[in-house]
Amino acid sequence: MIKKRLVLVVGCLIVASLIITGCGKGGETALPVEKEKPEYGGVLNLYQAADPQGFDDGLALHYSTNTLKLTNEELWEGDWTKGRAGGYGSGEVGWLTGGSVNRLEQKGGAIAESWEISDKDTITFHIRKGIYWHDKPPTNGRELTADDVVFSLNRQYTSAAAYMKRTYPQACETTEISAPDEWTVVVKCDPQYFGDVVTMIDYMNIYPRDAIEEFGNLTAWENSIGTGPFMLTDYISGNVMTFVRNPNYWRTNPIGPGEGDQLPYVDGVKLFVMPDESSRIAAFRTGKLDILTCDWELAQEFLEVPELQHFSYHEDGGQAVIYMRTDKEDSPLSDKRVRQALSLAIDNQKILDEYYGGEGVLVKWPLMPIDEYVGAYVPLEELPESVQELFGYNPEKAKQLLADAGYPDGFKVSIVCWNYRPYIDPLNMVAAMWADVGVELEIDAKEYGPFTSVLIRRAYDDMLYGFFSGCGTYFKGINYTGPGMYNGSYLDDPVLNKARDEMAEAFPDEAKADQIHRELMPYLLEQCYIIQLPAGNQYRFWWPWVKNYSGELSVGYYNLQNANKYLWIDQELKDAMLGK
Q1: What is the DSSP letter of 335?
Q2: What pLDDT, on the 0 to 100 scale, is given for residue 172?
């Protein structure tokens, strides 16, 4: 029995037109007792902040095509049962963020039923039988085979627009992928690129070969074909994507009262495009969205509603840092004294207290203090005093360092960023603080598409406020070495390159790689190659009618949305709470 307190609180949170029976009448309203056995039916209502950048990650960034996690699958993904799994899992990992966990021991099979790794140069995947493509032309529901897998992986390794080819070109050029039979795929690589290859396996979706050959690509949503739990049936740009249940999906629920049930449970998913934050808040407040992720400030309203479930956590790669063009010899940003001055001129504690309610961390780069990677991270209080000082506020010393570097009157610098409140607001605070030491910051705010284009190409003159790679690839050093998009400060430091090579050599001994990274952090932070602002805690809320859910965002490495196949809707409870 859910008591009157829930009815009153939720009834007052829902808009007045959706009053629950008994609210305000002094009586007690009987709502259904929570069910243990999952039920089929209902629609899961979710959102994302921007339109997808396509429906084919062979031509667009993986995290900009996250609808593919509903329609397509990879060889492996995270093991849902090792998370909380609606209260029935082992709890080894939270799966709360996109790029936080990429440990080999946390992998679970998807299209690959099993696999073997041999001598850091060979991975053999055994393809699961009985997986069928969506029943639409030209595939028409045929069975997936190893040929589809080899074709899809080779496309990622050879297409100039694919993330794998763009980010790890040397690994792509030295890797061979083959299918000795219909149900086996062998990936052979140069041992020095083993880490790149093995950790990107669950970053590449598998497509039907015949569909790619007929259409050229699957960029058009109408051509979306996968083996995933849902099928994309409609897309209105700037509005909503509509998915329906795949009746021929192969996976069953692995754990809990619904163990053995055919997945997914819900009839469909509505994925609304909602760039406006206030619209998302209003939609969640009225029960039109089932799940909401927000920052500390917006969370305060919902923390007052005890019936809402939530988790507070550290976001991973979605956090942003200030990249700088350190490669330009005539730029003040190439001088370590200037970079340190810029760091000292920021009152990080003030930003943390006033903008994030004091909840968060000051050291978030090159990786966040995620539980699964604590061995690779050094907290602020354990860093050398000279490094700790850089996270303090000392404008006088900042002025002196600028003068020593030849800029006693400061200088003007521009920064490109996403036109999004969590980006703009902190940068405005930084601009005011830098102005106090003579540095004029000009903010160039762009919409998401143009912003990501600049980020990918590293095409900015001075600075960019952009996101960095998650913890799951920390041992590759892509945040501070190499030609990829996450080396946004154009670094080519022999000390960093050496540490990267040592970590790659150590992998898959992740404990050894952790230690190498931990020892590197003091040097890396002392250089101030990037300016990192505080990371505030994030919150994820969901209504009590969303079942089998524990706040998961990504079951695996950037497998956004793929937890949805396990969720079910208590429609009776939802109808009662919404007054239907």
Answers
A1: S
A2: 93
Closest CA to 433 of 357, 534, 328: 534
Tokens standing for 160?
Answer: 């100039």
Residue 34: count of CB within 10 angstroms of its CB: 11
Please indicate, yes or no, if residue 38 is contained in any of the structural domains. Answer: no
Q: How far apart are CA 80 and CA 430, in angstroms?
A: 40
Q: d(Cα 74, Cα 68) in Å, to the nearest integer?
A: 10
Bond before 257 cis per omega within 30 degrees:
no
Which pTM does this prediction carry? 0.85
Instruction: Collapse the DSSP code of 395 into the 3-class scheme (helix H, G, I; strand E, B; otherwise coil) and give the result.
Output: helix
Backbone angles phi, psi at 525, to 5 degrees: -70, -30
Distance, in Å, from the CA atom of 458 to the CA atom of 481, rounded to the nearest integer, reads 14
Closest-CA residue to 548 (of 292, 272, 259):
259
Backbone φ, ψ for residue 412 (5° rounding):
-110, 140
- 3-state DSSP call for residue 515? helix
> Can you tell me the distance from the alpha carbon of 99 to that of 556, in angstroms, rounded to the nearest whole number?
8
Which pLDDT score, from 0 to 100, does residue 3 have?
30
pLDDT higher than 80, residue 61: no
Please name the amino acid found at residue 100.
S
Residue 316 makes CB contacts below 8 A (sequence gap 6+) with: 97, 98, 99, 100, 367, 368, 370, 470, 471
**Residue range 391-420, pLDDT digits in tens:** 999 999 999 999 999 999 999 999 999 998
Q: Do residues 385 and 285 both lie within one domain?
A: no
Expressed as residue numbers, the domain containing 383 is 320-536
Give the rounded distance of the alpha carbon of 398 from its chain centre: 35
pLDDT of residue 434: 98
* Structural domains in the chain (count): 2
Nearest-10 Cα torsion for 99, 76, 80, 128: 170
CATH code for the domain of 484:
3.10.105.10
Cβ neighbours, 10 Å, residue 381: 7
CA pair distance 84, 253, nearest whole angstrom: 14
8-state DSSP, 252: B
Q: Which of 298, 357, 324, 394 is nearest to 535 (CA)?
A: 357
Helix (H) or strand (E) holding 123: strand 122-127
DSSP annotation string for 397-463: HHHHHHHHTT-TT-EEEEEEEESSHHHHHHHHHHHHHHHTTTEEEEEEEE-HHHHHHHHHHT--SSE
Residue 356 exposure: Cα atoms within 13 Å on the Cβ side: 24
Nearest 5°: the CA angle 48, 51, 55 is 105
Q: Which two tokens stand for residue 106?
A: 């946390």
Average pLDDT, integer, range 443-460: 93
Intra-chain end-to-end CA distance of the chain, in Å? 18
Residue with tokens 């994302």: 48
For the record, the structure tokens of 373 come out as: 């990677």
482 and 551 in a single domain? The answer is no
- Cβ–Cβ under 8 Å, residues 91 and 83: yes
